[in-house]
Amino acid sequence: MEALNNGHDCSSWIPATNWTIAHGSPSASVALESSDSPIDSENATSTMKTPLILKPTSPDCGPCEIKISFTQKHEVCQVYV
């Protein structure tokens, strides 16, 4: 069975971060929308995404990096953090 996120195949993208995930998961927190499968605006506000909380791996750790790798080439227009 394929994992789905808002109707999107989660196996088509891979999240990674250099900080430890303290709560939540990227697959439950990230929403993807494309012209092929837009998010339904009527249902988008009815369900809140699970918060993703990251914490540094050590006190002198560098800035948080969140990387999302797609299995196909995509043009990313907007990113909200």
Q: How does this structure look, described?
A:
This protein is mostly beta strands and 81 residues long. Helices cover 10% and strands 26% of the residues. The strands form three sheets. The protein has a two-stranded antiparallel sheet with strand order 1-2. Strand 1 and strand 2 form a beta hairpin. The model is unreliable at 1-8 (pLDDT under 50).
List the helices and strands and how they pair.
Blueprint: E1 4-5, E2 8-9, E3 13-17, E4 20-23, H1 26-29, H2 41-44, E5 53-55, E6 66-70
Antiparallel strand pairs: 1-2, 3-6, 4-5
Biased composition (Polar residues): 30-49
Region (Disordered): 30-51
Number of individual domains: 1
Query: What is the overall number of helices?
Result: 2
Structural class: mainly beta
> Low-confidence parts, pLDDT < 50 over ≥5 residues?
1-8
Strand count, sense and closure of the main sheet?
2 strands, antiparallel
Distance between the termini: 30 Å
Q: What's the Cα radius of gyration?
A: 14 Å
The number of distinct β-strands equals 6
Chain-averaged pLDDT = 75
**C-alpha geometry:** globular
What's the helical proportion of residues? Answer: under 10%
Helix/strand order:
EEEEHHEE
Order of strands, main sheet, comes to: 1-2
Q: Indicate the proportion of strand residues.
A: 25-35%
